[in-house]
Amino acid sequence: MIRFNLNVIIAQHEQDTGRRWSYTALAEATGLNKNTIGAIATNKSRRVDLDTLNALCNFFGCEPGALFEYIPPSQEESHTPADAGTSDN
Protein backbone atom coordinates (compact mmCIF):
# COMPACT_ATOMS: atom_id res chain seq x y z
CA MET A 1 0.00 0.00 0.00
CA ILE A 2 1.08 3.55 -0.60
CA ARG A 3 0.48 5.92 2.30
CA PHE A 4 0.74 9.68 2.22
CA ASN A 5 3.04 11.37 4.73
CA LEU A 6 1.55 14.85 4.42
CA ASN A 7 0.75 15.15 8.13
CA VAL A 8 4.36 14.28 8.95
CA ILE A 9 5.61 16.90 6.47
CA ILE A 10 3.19 19.49 7.89
CA ALA A 11 4.32 18.73 11.46
CA GLN A 12 7.98 19.10 10.47
CA HIS A 13 7.21 22.38 8.70
CA GLU A 14 5.33 23.65 11.76
CA GLN A 15 8.31 22.83 13.94
CA ASP A 16 10.70 24.54 11.53
CA THR A 17 8.58 27.68 11.11
CA GLY A 18 6.99 27.91 14.55
CA ARG A 19 3.62 28.35 12.86
CA ARG A 20 0.61 26.06 12.92
CA TRP A 21 -0.58 25.15 9.44
CA SER A 22 -4.26 24.25 9.14
CA TYR A 23 -5.50 22.69 5.92
CA THR A 24 -7.14 26.03 5.13
CA ALA A 25 -3.90 27.97 5.61
CA LEU A 26 -1.99 25.40 3.55
CA ALA A 27 -4.62 25.63 0.82
CA GLU A 28 -4.29 29.41 0.70
CA ALA A 29 -0.48 29.21 0.62
CA THR A 30 -0.34 26.58 -2.13
CA GLY A 31 -3.40 27.45 -4.20
CA LEU A 32 -4.77 23.95 -3.67
CA ASN A 33 -8.28 23.09 -2.52
CA LYS A 34 -8.66 22.52 1.23
CA ASN A 35 -10.58 19.31 0.57
CA THR A 36 -7.76 18.00 -1.62
CA ILE A 37 -5.23 18.65 1.13
CA GLY A 38 -7.51 17.02 3.69
CA ALA A 39 -8.03 13.93 1.54
CA ILE A 40 -4.29 13.53 1.02
CA ALA A 41 -3.44 14.16 4.68
CA THR A 42 -6.00 11.58 5.89
CA ASN A 43 -5.08 9.02 3.23
CA LYS A 44 -8.52 9.12 1.65
CA SER A 45 -7.24 10.24 -1.74
CA ARG A 46 -6.61 7.48 -4.28
CA ARG A 47 -4.91 9.65 -6.88
CA VAL A 48 -3.02 12.91 -6.94
CA ASP A 49 -2.44 15.22 -9.90
CA LEU A 50 1.12 16.17 -10.78
CA ASP A 51 0.18 19.83 -10.34
CA THR A 52 -0.86 19.03 -6.76
CA LEU A 53 2.41 17.22 -6.07
CA ASN A 54 4.31 20.10 -7.61
CA ALA A 55 2.52 22.66 -5.41
CA LEU A 56 3.19 20.65 -2.24
CA CYS A 57 6.83 20.01 -3.12
CA ASN A 58 7.33 23.67 -3.99
CA PHE A 59 5.78 24.83 -0.71
CA PHE A 60 7.60 22.36 1.54
CA GLY A 61 10.86 22.32 -0.45
CA CYS A 62 10.81 18.54 -0.69
CA GLU A 63 11.03 15.80 -3.28
CA PRO A 64 7.84 13.91 -4.24
CA GLY A 65 9.12 10.78 -2.49
CA ALA A 66 8.96 12.59 0.85
CA LEU A 67 5.18 12.77 0.50
CA PHE A 68 4.70 8.99 0.18
CA GLU A 69 5.59 5.81 1.99
CA TYR A 70 5.42 2.29 0.60
CA ILE A 71 4.20 -0.36 3.02
CA PRO A 72 4.61 -3.95 1.83
CA PRO A 73 1.47 -6.14 2.01
CA SER A 74 2.99 -8.20 4.82
CA GLN A 75 3.19 -5.08 7.02
CA GLU A 76 -0.08 -3.32 6.11
CA GLU A 77 -2.03 -4.41 9.19
CA SER A 78 0.68 -3.24 11.59
CA HIS A 79 0.55 0.32 10.19
CA THR A 80 -2.29 2.66 11.06
CA PRO A 81 -3.18 5.44 8.63
CA ALA A 82 -1.53 8.81 9.19
CA ASP A 83 -4.86 10.52 9.74
CA ALA A 84 -4.05 12.15 13.07
CA GLY A 85 -2.43 15.54 13.20
CA THR A 86 -3.09 18.85 11.58
CA SER A 87 -6.68 19.72 10.74
CA ASP A 88 -9.07 22.60 10.80
CA ASN A 89 -10.71 21.46 14.02
Please name the defining characteristics of this protein:
434 Repressor (Amino-terminal Domain); two-stranded antiparallel ribbon; 89 residues; 2 strands; single chain; mainly alpha
Q: How is this structure best described in words?
A:
By secondary structure, this protein is mainly alpha-helical. The protein has one domain: 434 Repressor (Amino-terminal Domain), CATH 1.10.260. The chain is about 45% helix and about 5% strand. It is built from four helices and two strands. The chain has a two-stranded antiparallel ribbon.
Task: Detail the topology: elements first, then pairings.
Elements: E1 2-4, H1 6-17, H2 23-30, H3 34-41, H4 50-60, E2 68-70
Antiparallel strand pairs: 1-2
Helix pairs in contact: 2-3
State the end-to-end distance. 28 Å
CATH architecture: Orthogonal Bundle
Q: Catalogue the unreliable spans.
A: 82-89
Number of domains: 1
Individual helix count: 4
Number of separate strands: 2
User: Which structural category fits the helices and strands?
Assistant: mainly alpha
Q: What is the overall pLDDT average?
A: 88
Give the overall shape: globular
- In angstroms, what is the radius of gyration? 13 Å
Largest beta sheet: strand ordering: 1-2
Describe, in short, the structure shown.
44% of the residues lie in helices and 7% in strands. It is mainly alpha-helical.
